């Protein structure tokens, strides 16, 4: 089933609690954590994640675009995140980290930057609950969707199916009403949407519309045939 995760990065930071409540029909609230080292931007940290957890009933999906995720990721689970994504490019021991995140009670997710191939990590997939394919270069919201990532999404879906895994496949970057159907057709089932939701007059309605678009495209997609 298609899931829509609005990105708080595109919200009004002076009204985060209200902005979180505005999308309470969403499946998850996507929280971008950046450290100005792994990516050239600085955003939210553990205290804000804790505050968001108190402000909304929507589970938090924390995307850590930071160095040393092996050290920091467990703290985000303790802060209340229901899903924690680390970048494989930054992780020293991704299998150990995924197991630690799961052991602490959250879903473990691994992200790949656009230039990072999925194939070398095929054997790691059973250790994960979700895989994130970045469809822009991580670091800033509002970037244009990279169509060249669609074959990578397809290859990833094929690997998931090959191993018979119940693994969510998330896409993040430039997801909007004009791109979400292509992502769903390629194999994604979890969609991070920033400006497409928070730039809309009615964010909750935008979430519903995106979910309907994704669901229709998924139903018609070749990868769902026989499921």
Automatic annotation (TrEMBL):
Gene3D superfamilies referenced in this protein's UniProt entry, alphabetically: Aldolase class I (3.20.20.70)
Entry keywords, A to Z: Carbohydrate metabolism, Cobalt, Isomerase, Manganese, Metal-binding, Zinc
Co-factor(s): a divalent metal cation; Mn(2+); Co(2+); Fe(2+)
Pfam families in the record: Ribul_P_3_epim (PF00834)
Name the record gives this protein: Ribulose-phosphate 3-epimerase
PANTHER family found in the cross-reference section: RIBULOSE-5-PHOSPHATE-3-EPIMERASE
Task performed by this protein: Catalyzes the reversible epimerization of D-ribulose 5-phosphate to D-xylulose 5-phosphate.
One MF term in the entry's GO annotations: D-ribulose-phosphate 3-epimerase activity
Catalyzed chemical reaction(s): D-ribulose 5-phosphate = D-xylulose 5-phosphate
Top-level class of the enzyme under EC nomenclature: isomerase
GO biological process: pentose catabolic process; pentose-phosphate shunt
Sites where the protein binds a divalent metal cation: 30, 32, 63, 172
HAMAP family noted in UniProt: RPE
One Gene Ontology term, aspect cellular component: cytoplasm
Binding site for substrate: 7, 63, 139-142, 172-174, 194-195
Cofactor detail note: Binds 1 divalent metal cation per subunit.
Pathway: Carbohydrate degradation
Family indicated by similarity: Belongs to the ribulose-phosphate 3-epimerase family.
Presence of keyword Isomerase: yes
Active site: 32 (proton acceptor), 172 (proton donor)
EC number: 5.1.3.1
